[in-house]
Write a structure and sequence with these properties.
mainly alpha; about 0% strand; about 80 residues; 3 helices; elongated
Length: about 80
């Protein structure tokens, strides 16, 4: 019984993060020991994110047609009332 409790406590300790792990990210977004990313890498990552975001929005529109139609109507109303 005492062994199981000790194992459980050890498991809890393993789940906690330490000070600064080697795979933990620093303030610049890269890992602590990796060079900073280039602007081309950032643009490539951003483009991938935007593609996935667009795909997710299209999927949401297909599975919730009433909500998508209401959103289109609101957008159309905003565009009609927009002043140059």
């Amino acid at each position: 019984m005492a062994q199981k409790d000790a194992d459980r406590q050890d498991g809890k300790q393993d789940g906690k993060r330490g000070e600064k792990d080697a795979d933990q990210q620093d303030d610049t977004g890269g890992t602590a020991d990796a060079p900073p990313e280039t602007p081309a890498e950032r643009r490539r990552r951003r483009a991938q994110f935007l593609r996935e975001l667009h795909e997710a929005k299209a999927l949401r529109d297909r599975v919730q047609p009433r909500r998508a139609r209401a959103a289109r109507m609101r957008q159309a109303m905003r565009m009609r009332t927009f002043r140059w």
